Give the backbone structure.
Amino acid sequence: MSDSNLPADFPLHEAHALVRDLMTPNPWIYWLDFLFHITLSWTAFVIALHSSFFSIWQLLACSVAVLAFYRSAIFVHELAHLKKGTFTVFRLAWNLICGIPLMIPSFTYDGVHNDHHKRDVYGTSKDGEYLPFATQRPGEMVRYVLLSFMLPLLLVARFLLLTPLSYLIPPLRKLVWERASSLTINPNYKRAANAVRNDHNWRLQEFATFMFALMVVTSVALGVLPYQALALWYVIAVLIFILNSLRTLAAHAYRNPGDRTLGLAEQYLDSVNIPGNFITGLWAPVGLRYHATHHLFMSLPYHNLGKAQQRLVRGLNDNTLYLQTVRKGLWDALTRIWKEAAASTR
């Protein structure tokens, strides 16, 4: 950060006082939101599967499935933040009807994402969810987005192939845990042996995901399921990953080259808020459009982030620094980081 005095001027205590009463999650909101969207997801998937190829109905159903599955999947972010030992039934339900079928059981984010919020980890080489895109060639961002075409296949390989092999080869077991068991963007991230917060039953989640993948592939091989089901799953998964990669690029300024740690206020100023409108909520669901505010108060449940944003904008005596993280939309956020990257590598 160019001005080292900025964080010292940030009204952190005043901001905390304005949102102190918003920290309690409402289970009803979580359940209704998730169950509605995961039901919509699978309904749209079935409609798309049984519609004529490339018909308007298939395209519409596929679009709905992508957005609804994406919103359902992003609840893994909330699971990573919820207080230890809470929402246990919700976590089980999410894994059974969303996480496992999408090959992203909650253990792949639990204990990993929390490191991203630690003051001595955020923005450093140890942060699995941070790369200094603004200091690299713009082509690195293109490469990151294009990786979305490979990720669904890599997830299937991880659970369908590497899981049983790791049971038979102990050294591979350790390698799979460290290098292939985390939803991250940093290819050098190495998961610690104790990087588990809530999902101490991660081995059961892993085995269940393996069994689900095996059951689907076997069903397709035996003709019980049409091969189009796998093709549709792949297309939807790729579109979700592309959407998420663009959203991820818009979530931070990514200016820290990794050579120093950032304080809480610095983390906030290196992050992005895109309040936007209804459309913003489609590509940045479950509160992720308020990503900078989330980094300021990571215990705020997603359904209170919008209210917190309004209070902070209107209630802070001086909201100048707070508003520095605001972007007009996805295009604004992406063009800013692209221009910074181009300028830094010129």
